[in-house]
Write a structure and sequence with these properties.
Structural class: alpha+beta
Radius of gyration: 14 Å
CATH topology: Alpha-Beta Plaits
Helix content: 25-40%
């Protein structure tokens, strides 16, 4: 399963490092590999600072929504309040479940494969660095 990390507020590198360490320490979760960190232009509202982005390959026994809950808790540890931020606004830490093996998830809280995967070239590069062709990964997920 693949998780995207992003940060454009504060000590961006420290936020990503915190996320990697906290995820790896969670019961039932191991960080198997990490792409290089890449600085990218922000998406969304104007006036934001550049992002640092990274893709992680995780091994997990958690179900998708349990992993989402863990990600939201890690974001909150770094000061992120999703309810108080504009969509695609600046954030200390953003964790997105991008792919969950060949599973499709469609709940009110979570959609996997992430619907923005085809549109985010920095995710494509992160996945490629981990040996994953995003188009093949999408094709492997049943409709």
């Amino acid at each position: 399963m693949y998780l995207a990390l992003g940060s454009n507020l504060g000590d961006r590198a420290a936020h990503l490092a915190h996320a990697r360490a906290r995820l790896d320490a969670l019961p039932g979760v191991r960080v198997a590999a990490a792409s290089p960190v890449e600085e990218t232009a922000p998406l969304g509202p104007a006036g934001q600072d550049p992002y640092l982005n990274q893709m992680l390959a995780l091994r997990t026994t958690l179900e998708p929504e349990a992993l989402l809950d863990a990600c939201l808790a890690v974001e909150a540890e770094r000061g992120r309040d999703r309810a108080a931020s504009p969509r695609w606004g600046a954030r200390t830490l953003d964790l997105d479940v991008v792919l969950f093996g060949a599973r499709r998830v469609a709940t009110p809280r979570l959609r996997v494969p992430h619907p923005e995967l085809p549109n985010r070239d920095f995710w494509h590069r992160g996945l490629a660095a981990l040996g994953v062709d995003w188009r093949e990964a999408l094709a492997a997920v049943p409709a």
